[in-house]
Design goal:
By secondary structure, this protein is of the alpha/beta class. 46% of the residues lie in helices and 14% in strands. The longest helix is centred in the first third of the chain and has 67 residues.
Length: 408
């Protein structure tokens, strides 16, 4: 009987275990279905999110394409001769504001930049202080011959401190009167011809140089004639005045006109040949700006250290025609100039300025959307050569090389 009871108990336990195993299996299956369903839901959710992102990307791309019509998110590298660095900075900022194209500027002497381009420097545009070096790049087949443009005409000036020696106060006063007369010659508004003014100015400059070089300790700075066109112009000037040999013991040479000007403003030299555009930025009274070693030479107690700017007559040196090249063997797109008023071909196109004369063809201002296919370096040169920018060069001490637009 006990045996029978044990058998029944064993069967009952087995049955209970079977029920438990079955329940566990069903639960596992149920969990597996839930996990699968969750994966499907997650996949569906990811797909929906992905579709949303794609739609957003399309919208963003459309907006970006619209903005490209007004701005280019690009950067160009421009190499510029030292004399033109300040005007270029202003011009580059205006260009970037208008187009969105960033301009990275490298400043050095024309000769140094030319050598760098010969060795593969990746400048997009090279603005030299002469025409010879850009022309040499064309002649050596490094750039396309159609990428050469004259962009400005420079002027040479001689700057010096008004008190050049240690004479008595009366002699200094007499000298200052002569200096004023010298400046009056340069700014003459009388009926004298340009030739007459140049003769007087040449005589004035020669006397000032001779007076300066009477003191063996006085130094005069010029830019390296082999590297800087303004240094070459200075050497031509001294040779034409028959003062080159007399000048050599007094010579201090800068790498470029900026360093040459720095020699003067720091008191290392008593005079310097520099670009007229740079001389315009000099303060009239140097006594508060120069170091003590300069003031010890210039007797500021009896006379202020006044900077005198003498424009060098252009008859004393070859014209300083400053040229640029777009650094590419492919011809640049320099014409038509998109920064000049463009005729409206579509009557529905917006007119930026009212037309007051029915006989005048309607025009509109620059739009970047018109520049499709025009490289950013080409656009930069077009902007530099536009009438408005060319006219502004006068304020910087330069002369425009052309009446309007891009030309030779």
């Amino acid at each position: 009987m006990v045996f029978s009871l044990a058998m029944r108990l064993s069967s009952f336990v087995n049955l209970a275990m079977l029920i438990l195993v079955s329940a566990s299996t069903c639960a596992s299956v149920a969990l597996g279905v839930m996990a699968f369903s969750s994966s499907v839901a997650q996949a569906s959710s990811f797909e929906a999110a992905n579709n949303t992102v794609n739609e957003g990307s399309v919208i963003s791309a459309e907006k970006q394409n619209q903005s490209v019509n007004f701005k280019r998110d690009e950067k160009i590298n421009v190499a510029v001769a030292a004399n033109f660095a300040k005007p270029l900075k202003s011009i580059a900022e205006q260009f970037t504001e208008l187009t969105g194209i960033e301009v990275a500027v490298t400043v050095s002497s024309s000769g140094t930049l030319y050598a760098q381009i010969q060795h593969g420097a990746s400048f997009d545009v090279f603005l030299s202080a002469d025409r010879a070096r850009p022309q040499a790049l064309v002649d050596n087949n490094l750039v396309h011959h159609g990428n050469l443009v004259n962009y400005a005409k420079g002027k040479l000036a001689f700057v010096y401190a008004g008190d050049l020696s240690r004479e008595s106060f009366s002699e200094i006063s007499s000298k200052k009167s002569s200096e004023r007369n010298c400046e009056q010659i340069a700014r003459s508004s009388t009926g004298e011809t340009t030739a007459q003014i140049n003769v007087q100015l040449t005589d004035c400059l020669s006397k000032q140089l001779v007076q300066l070089m009477e003191n063996p300790q006085n130094k005069v700075a010029i830019a390296n004639p082999k590297l800087a066109p303004y240094g070459d112009a200075a050497q031509q000037t001294l040779q034409n005045l028959s003062l080159w040999q007399q000048f050599l013991p007094h010579r201090v040479m800068g790498k470029n006109v900026l360093q040459t000007l720095q020699f003067y403003t720091t008191g290392s030299v008593k005079g310097a040949f520099v670009a007229y555009s740079l001389a315009l930025d000099l303060p009239a009274d140097l006594s508060s700006n120069l170091p003590s070693k300069f003031n010890s030479v210039v007797n500021t107690k009896s006379a202020d250290a006044v900077t005198v700017i003498v424009p060098v007559p252009e008859t004393l040196y070859q014209p300083i025609i400053q040229s640029l090249v777009v650094n590419s063997k492919t011809v640049a797109t320099l014409s038509p100039n998109l920064f000049e008023p463009l005729p409206i071909k579509n009557a529905a196109a917006p007119v930026d300025e009212p037309i007051h004369n029915d006989n005048v063809e309607p025009t509109r201002a620059f739009r970047l959307s018109d520049a499709s296919g025009v490289s950013s370096p080409s656009l930069f040169v077009q902007y530099l050569m536009s009438q408005g920018v060319q006219h502004s060069l006068i304020e910087w001490g330069y002369e425009p090389t052309i009446a309007s637009g891009v030309g030779n």
